[in-house]
Each structure stands twice: as C-alpha cells, then as structure tokens.
Amino acid sequence: MSQPVILNSEPVEVEGVQWLPSNLWSDEPPLESDFHRDQIDLLIQILRWWWRDREDIYVSGNLTVYYNQQQLKSRDFRGPDFFVVLGTEKKDPPRR
Prior knowledge:
Layout: H1 34-50, E1 57-60, E2 65-66, E3 77-78, E4 83-86
Antiparallel strand pairs: 1-4, 2-3
C-alpha cells in the first residue's frame, strides 16, 4: 500500500529569489469555486470564438477596469468577472 506524501509547509529559501507575500490586499471577493472560474473562462472563450472574425471587439475578464486616470488613485474602479469592449482595436496581449 502506498504512503501519503507529506509536503513541507515551511518556506523554502532560494538564494537570489525574493518571494512575494501571499496575503496581498484585494478589494475583490475571492472566486466562489473552481466551477465559477471555469464558467468565466468558458464564457470568454465562447465570446472570442463567436466574434473571431471581427477586429473591433475585445473580450477578457478578471482585470481591473479604470474609467479615467484620476481614478487610478481612488477606489472608483471595477474588477468584473468578464467584459466586452465594442468598437476598439483588437490587439494580442503583450508577451513576457
């Protein structure tokens, strides 16, 4: 019979690597479940496929949307599960 794997829960020190904190503040509520996230992904993929031949639509999700530059410093912004922008230039996301 196989034995369960026990993982070390202590942080691992790696020279030259600075780990980000895991408790970053966010005003967004956590996703309800994996099913909720899968629904968001599915909706975005369906809409991208539906409008695949159009060059004036942008579909995405889980991104913070600011309405103007002044709102970058305020709390007047939204982080929708998904959104569609009509009448915009379709661009591929930047590669890292």
